[in-house]
Structures are given as structure tokens and as C-alpha cells.
Amino acid sequence: MTGAEEHIDEGLADSLDRLYTPHRMTYISGEDRPEGGYEKPASCPFCLAPGRTAEESLVVARGEHVFVVLNLYPYNPGHLLVCPYRHVADYTDLVGPETAELASFTQTAMRVIRKVSSAHGFNLGMNQGGVAGAGIAAHLHQHVVPRWGGDANFMPVIGRTKVLPQLLGDTRDLFVRAWPS
User: Fold this and answer.
1) Which residue, 33, 57, 114, 159, shows the most beta carbons closer than 10 Å to its own?
2) pLDDT digit string, tens, across residues 48-100
3) Are 147 and 120 in contact, with CB atoms under 8 Å apart?
4) How far apart are CA 87 and CA 85, in angstroms?
5) Which of the following is catalytic: 65, 79, 139, 141?
6) Contact by Cβ (8 Å): 76, 151
7) What domain range includes position 137?
8) 85 lies in a domain?
């Protein structure tokens, strides 16, 4: 037995702090996955979001071809998704106006995030297909993830936990007020 195993067997504390985040279990367990799963959802959350109330959907801005929504499971505070209204899976399937507006809204999202939270940088990207990491592969979405110096601390690396200092609804309200008309 190692020293650590002896302490556990004896019921002694291991000197680690615990941060409980039970709200994450719905994501981990898949309880909130759409019917049919993420690859072929019976009801696509990105198709449903624009028709729901702003508070229910977390939509920040709407354009003619795309909309911007807060990520329900953000990598960092203010993690936005730019989604076409049209249910399309692959970037190459977008038509010219959709591509242009997606790019424009991504730029605006970056400006708004900088204005609201002084982000130092961004990760931008699309995961094309489930094997590439797309949680909802059937509906294209561009990630706009704000980054700050030192934001990759021990919590996600060692604790596999992300600490978010603000509720999603509060973040959405800040972005809506800052989004240009």
C-alpha cells in the first residue's frame, strides 16, 4: 500500500479541497441530450433556439442568416456560438450570404466580448463532425471563446472543473446591451 492508500483506509483527509458543481451532471450524464442524440437530433437545439424566448434560449443577437447564442456549457465565461438559422452541418454547404454574415457576426462577437469583459484573446473554431469534437454535429456553429492571461489554471487541468464567475443569463444581458443595433 502507498501512503495515500493507508490514509484513505484510515479515514484521514487527503488535504484536497472539493468544489461541487452538481449542475454539470446533466451535461456529463447526457440527461439533456436531444432525442436521437447529438449526431441526428430529433429536435435540434440550434433550430429551436431562435423560436424560444431570449431568456430560455440565451440568444444574444439575430441577423438575417445567423444568430448568436451563449454556449450552455461554456469553456470560459462569455463563450458564444454563431449559428446559421438553416440546419446545415458542413461549412462548405453554407451559401455566400450565410458565410459572410457568419464571419461578420463572429467579428462583432469579438468586439462585444472585448468591450464587456476585456478579453486578451480568443479561440475561434468549428468542429466539423462528431469525430472532430462537435457536440451537435448536425448543425454548424462557430465557437467564439474569450481568453485571458492565466485563465487555464489548475481547476480544469487537475480538477477537471471549470469555474464560471457569472450566471449565463447575466452574461447574456451584458452582451445584449453591448451588441450594436
Assistant:
1) 57
2) 999 998 778 899 999 999 999 999 888 888 999 999 999 999 999 999 999 99
3) yes
4) 6
5) 141
6) yes
7) 43-178
8) yes
Question: Whole-angstrom Cα distance, residue 79 to residue 123?
Answer: 10
> How far apart are the C-alpha atoms of 1 and 9, rounded to whole Å?
10
The full length of the chain comes to 181
Cell of 158: 487537475
- Look-up: residue for cell 456529463? 28
Q: Express each pLDDT in 117-141 by its tens digit.
A: 999 999 999 999 888 888 888 899 9
The pLDDT, as a whole number, for residue 1 is 47
Q: Which residue has the higher pLDDT, 36 or 145?
A: 145
In this structure, what C-alpha cell is assigned to residue 39? 449526431
Count of CB atoms within 10 A of residue 125's CB? Answer: 12
163 found inside a domain: yes
Distance of alpha carbon 141 from alpha carbon 128, whole angstroms: 9
Q: What is the reported pLDDT for 31?
A: 67
The total domain count for the chain is: 1
